[in-house]
Design brief:
This protein has helices spanning about 10-15, 20-25, 35-65, 75-90, 95-110, 115-140. By secondary structure, the chain is mostly helical. Helix 5 packs across helix 6. The two termini are about 25 Å apart.
Length: about 140
């Protein structure tokens, strides 16, 4: 989706404001005809509701002392549903395999830094995959 955005400032904000929701919407089949401007507006809207929701949650969280069992799993469930939806839309088998592999390696090598190590490995894997695809296209 960022390739449709023009200008350094637009690309910078687009990178900063890329959330799971924005990515899922901007990469869906229905969004193929969207302009970069529309994608930026989508990201700005999602960014604003993330900030508003986080602020409201922080303020209300201090006022509510009740412990809600299972609430900590809500974000995990959200990302699982988004990942499944993205997979069903693209049917890209190597990406989830790469993600699981990176998570398992990170857990084995740096269990205390699973998220950071897993995401770093996944990013490197995606960059390597992109470079290999680009190389194959230029040599074809």
């Amino acid at each position: 989706p960022l390739s449709k955005i023009n200008g350094k400032a637009g690309k910078a904000y687009g990178s900063f404001a890329m959330t799971a929701e924005a990515y899922a919407l901007a990469t869906a089949d229905a969004a193929r005809s969207w302009s970069g401007r529309r994608i930026l507006w989508l990201q700005a809207f999602i960014h604003s509701y993330w900030v508003s929701g986080a602020t409201a949650g922080a303020l209300l969280g201090t006022a509510i002392s009740v412990r809600i069992p299972g609430l900590g799993f809500a974000m995990t469930a959200l990302f699982a549903v988004l990942a499944i939806d993205a997979f069903l839309a693209r049917r890209d088998v190597p990406t989830p395999i790469l993600a699981v592999t990176c998570a398992l390696i990170a857990r084995a090598v740096l269990p205390g830094q699973l998220l950071l190590a897993g995401l770093a490995l996944f990013t490197l894997g995606l960059l390597a995959r992109h470079a290999l695809r680009r190389r194959a296209l230029t040599h074809a």
